[in-house]
Amino acid sequence: MVQALKEWAVVCRALQEGRQTVLLRKGGILEYRQGFEVKHDRFMLFPTYEHQAKEHLQPDYAGRIDAVFKEQPPAESNVLSSYAEAKRVAEIRDPAVLKQLEKYHVWSESYVNARMAYNPQKPMSVILVRVYNLQNPIKIDTKKEWAGCKSWIPIDVEAAGRPALDDSAFSMIESKVMEVLA
């Protein structure tokens, strides 16, 4: 059994392409009280199709959402095509830090600010991730207990993949993100 992080399918695509290297999380409705926690160093990315919209994305990436919706698997199934390693986790409360991280994710400034304002007593988790693309995507049947606004779900799969960014490119981004989070 491994853990999977539920994330917008368009964000999973950006992670797989190396366009995105940080995740910004506050937690879902079901995690409101405790907030988001990075419970696992390595996890599958579980694409979701709810709540994502063009206006929540930066203009340079908003056009990708149509292709992602066209590739949506049939109901009650999903396709897992990548996993991630959490390389650095930081909790921030300063919205100015988010502005410095905008080139490392695809969310619009207005969406990030709305997420920051959600559950204001809790910090925003910034997770620097190294993503690996599976050589053979895994088709799975979804389970009812995976539904809802929760971040982590247990799944029964094994996976190995190749990095979305080579060591040099990832190291350069990692050092820049670490400067922002220092």
What is the helix fraction of residues, given as a range? 25-40%
Order of helices and strands: EHEEHHEHHEEEH
**Helical segment count:** 6
| Number of strand elements | 7
* Global structural class: alpha+beta
Q: What oligomeric arrangement do these chains adopt? A: single chain
Shape: globular
Low-confidence stretches: none
Mean pLDDT: 90
Q: Characterize the largest beta sheet: strand count, sense, and whether it forms a barrel.
A: 7 strands, mixed
Tell me the Rg in angstroms: 15 Å
Kindly estimate the percentage of residues that lie in beta strands according to DSSP.
25-35%
What is the total domain count? 1
Tell me the distance between the termini: 34 Å
Task: Detail the topology: elements first, then pairings.
Layout: E1 2-8, H1 9-17, E2 22-25, E3 42-48, H2 59-62, H3 64-70, E4 77-92, H4 95-100, H5 109-117, E5 124-141, E6 152-155, E7 161-163, H6 167-181
Parallel strand pairs: 1-3
Antiparallel strand pairs: 1-6, 2-5, 3-4, 4-5, 5-7
Structural account:
The protein has 182 residues and is of the alpha+beta class. It has one domain. The chain has helices spanning 9-17, 59-62, 64-70, 95-100, 109-117, 167-181, and strands at 2-8, 22-25, 42-48, 77-92, 124-141, 152-155, 161-163. The model has no long low-confidence stretch (mean pLDDT 90).
